[in-house]
Amino acid sequence: MTGGNYSIAGGFWALTQIVETSGAPSLHISSSGNVVTIYWQNVSGWNLYQDNNLTRPAGSWSAAGTPTLSNGTNYLNLASPVGNVFFRLGNP
Predict the structure, then answer these.
(1) Residue 64 in contact with residue 48, Cβ under 8 Å?
(2) Is 0.85 topped by the overall pTM?
(3) Among 31, 59, 64, 69, who pairs with 50 as Cys (CB 3.0-4.6 Å)?
(4) Which is nearest to 80 in space by CA: 25, 29, 27, 32?
(5) CATH code of the region 16-90
(6) pLDDT 10s per residue in the chain (92 long)?
């Protein structure tokens, strides 16, 4: 792959995917049991959005919920996500 900074860490999740946004903090994903955690560095001006359709324009994605802030990192826990779920950071 070319044109961006990409990484894979700790495994593979078939139905939950992170979409990188140029200039945004890096998004990370982890899972434990039935809980999926999306986390990223707390940088002012960036909010988490989600959609179940990767082809929709970025402006039509929904806010992903209220993250928990701990030690400069935002965490959003999702219990048993169903179907396809895509996440991205964006400026409102």
Answers:
(1) yes
(2) no
(3) 64
(4) 32
(5) 2.60.40
(6) 444 554 444 444 445 556 666 778 888 989 898 888 999 999 998 999 999 888 888 888 999 989 999 999 999 998 877 788 888 888 86
